[in-house]
Amino acid sequence: MSKSENGPQSRLSGAGWITILVLVVLLAWAIWYAAGAWAAMRAVHMSVLGWVFLCAGAIVTFLLGGGLMALVFYSSRHDMDR
Fold this sequence. Notes:
The protein is mainly α. The protein is built from two helices and no strands. It has two domains: 12-44; 45-82. Helices cover 70% and strands 0% of the residues.
């Protein structure tokens, strides 16, 4: 089977590689910053109820984001994005 001239390219362009590099640098910076913030907060005491609410907030945020992404996927698949 031969490749068509107008088909999708199998390799990334220079802009694609630059985008990936920028995203990797941003991820590394975010991890470094989060680790520093976590270490700075080591002396702060939080009660059990505080941990419960922190975990509940993280779970609700994750579920809300997943639900919204599911709605975007559903509306896209059912041609509701006009």
